[in-house]
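Standup notes
- DV: blocked on the single-chain target, sequence here:
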Amino acid sequence: MKNHQEEIIMKRQIIHIDEEKCNGCGLCAEACHEGAIDIVDGKAKLVREHFCDGFGDCLPGCPTGAITFEEREAPAYDEEAVKASQARKKAEALEDSGKSTCESGHAAGQAAGHGCPGSRFMKLNTQAGISEAAAHAAGPGFNPSAAHAANSGFDTSFSHGSSPSASAVYGQAPKPVSRLEQWPCQIKLLPTQAPFYNGAKLLIAADCTAYAYANMHEDFMRGKVTLIGCPKLDAVDYSEKLTEIIARNDIKSVTIVRMEVPCCGGLQRAAEKALRASGKFIPWQVVTISRDGKILD
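- DV (later): unblocked, structure below
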């Protein structure tokens, strides 16, 4: 493979990114199969000129028209370096998957309590805490089954800071309880197959949504298997693992909760790509949260 410092400089067609127009959505970086573009400080940048083949796969997806062609002196396209980079990323992804998905014999060890304790998957029993908190708030005669009657289908009557089902059943604000149904919850750490996926409704949520939206547990996590991640901070393609989870398990529905910021679109695109690639027809919806904690239409 050629040394990058010794690459031939030639006049050729290459892309140009107008940073003033760029909104940092990341669509171009996702479309560039060669890996020439990165998102740096919220802006798309051509960080590896010798990876740009000049074909412009990144152009059509740019929503602001920030990417154009130009002809100038630049390093020659290095196909060998691109292939080596792609092979390295694939190997790293497989290594990460092997560490986190707990498949094959490793899965049995994890389930039995061996392996890394932080990534050992388990079904959490939140019902005891919910019933205790509900009984305390409601007093004598409380019917715990009524508190979960709204768990089927999509709940579109979202509130900001309170739960409709809780206020109706309890008569007063109950002590908040966790609605996390399983561990782990980070997409990178979750296995692709586990008992808690059977018949599950998935919640695929951006990390920040739980901090921006006050009633995340009651309005979104209740009755769902929660998967969280940040497409800007995690240097992985979520779509591959999400495709496996959806394709290999009996998933009933998918709810995607994202922030309004452009970079959060990467999570939505990964989930939508996974739904298509799974080959299944599953009900799904997208909910967008504003920076000040409101649900946007």
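- Follow-up: Confidence is low (pLDDT under 50) at residues 1-5, 100-115, 144-153, 159-170.
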